[in-house]
Design goal:
By secondary structure, this protein is α+β, with helices and mostly antiparallel strands. The protein has one domain (3-152). It has five helices and six strands; from the N terminus they run H-E-E-E-H-H-E-E-H-E-H. The protein has helices at 3-12, 46-65, 67-72, 104-116, 133-140; strands spanning 19-25, 28-33, 38-43, 78-84, 90-96, 121-129. The strands form two sheets. It has a four-stranded antiparallel beta sheet, sandwiched between helices. Helix 2 (46-65) packs across helix 4 (104-116). The chain is globular, with a radius of gyration of 16 Å.
């Protein structure tokens, strides 16, 4: 592990992550072009995967915090990482905080529901409570920091 990855891991350790979500994306999706009256396939790119994560986290934050998310920017802490597996399928590992006013089962159901709405959502997903935060952070940062989705990362910054 290089110095930058170690620094990321050390910085993220203060954030109260309680859940990990391992989500797999479809390789492509079928779209309809009205102009040509034909279907075509849109292949998933890292940018589209990032947009899917944005959509998932946005919907999850709206469902959890309601108007406070929109008005006061209240949101869940998140550390998403985008990776490719051996079959060239993009997937993400997201570490999430959970608010105290939601029980674990309801939170897992909320995550599952918002994931179903993403355009490249795939049925393979694993959502579970974190038992060892250091191990989860190490797993998320196993490749290097380039895999971190900075656009959707939200960490605790008050030290």
């Amino acid at each position: 592990m290089n110095k930058i990855t170690s620094a990321w891991k050390e910085f993220a350790e203060d954030t109260p992550f309680e859940f990990r979500c391992d989500l797999t994306f479809k390789k492509s999706r079928r779209l309809y072009n009205k102009k040509h009256n034909a279907y075509y396939w849109e292949k998933l790119t890292p940018e589209l995967a990032e947009n899917n994560i944005t959509m998932i986290l946005d919907r999850l934050n709206r469902r959890v915090f309601k108007n406070a998310y929109r008005r006061h920017k209240k949101q869940l802490f998140a550390l998403p990482v985008i990776e490719t597996n051996k079959d060239d399928r993009l997937h993400t590992h997201i570490l999430l905080s959970k608010p105290d006013f939601i029980d674990d089962d309801t939170f897992v159901k909320l995550i599952d529901d918002v994931c179903d709405c993403a355009p490249f959502a795939y049925h393979e997903r694993n959502i579970e409570r974190i038992h060892d935060k250091k191990a989860s952070l190490s797993y998320n940062l196993k490749t290097d920091c380039d895999a971190i989705d900075l656009k959707n990362t939200y960490l605790l910054t008050n030290r």
